[in-house]
Fold DNA-binding response regulator.
Amino acid sequence: MVDMDNSAVIRVFLLDDHEVVRRGLRDLLGGEPGIEVVGEAASGEQALARGPALRPDVAVLDVRLPDGDGITVCRELRSLMPELACLMLTSFDDEDALLDAIMAGAAGYVLKQIKGSDLVTAVRTVASGQSLLDPATTARLMRSLRADEGEPAAQDARLAGLTERERAILALIGEGLTNRQIGGKLYLSEKTVKNHISRMLAKLGVERRVQAAVLAAQVTRAAVEQRNS
């Protein structure tokens, strides 16, 4: 994560199998103050070979590649560089790819139709440690994952360790509420909600709140399918 309060340059690595796209991204991002494109790759294999040595802060990764997919590259690069922020770039509004990207730890997921200025903002956003996932797409994904309106299945080992308060917060995260909105519903301060979420993520073994919400939705769906089988 880059400290946005200082003059540190955001180091960016690019992965796309189309040279024209890479050149466009390099010219766009490299022309911005405080951003440096430190390397690029045309395949997943090249990205895994070159990326770690360059120590980028942000990796802009194409989702679909001739030798695999950018989501696998995201997961493997982050296993080597946990602080790396991966921004997935795709031509397709694909819920399955979004789900996989979330669970791989991607910090952002944007379509290639995005405006150049918005892409620059996205790079700066994920470099600062924030997530950038399109709210409408994420909400649609969560709705499609929910098999019913019930609470996450308590018997699942991944969720069994959560307190009642943490489970309530998790359910509200799944509805797309912010920390402040959750605090308003549960009569808690925003700081208290944030502390609960930090402990909850640690228990679940995930980094981001949206990962926790997806996990809970998957567990609920699996439990309902098992009950109905």
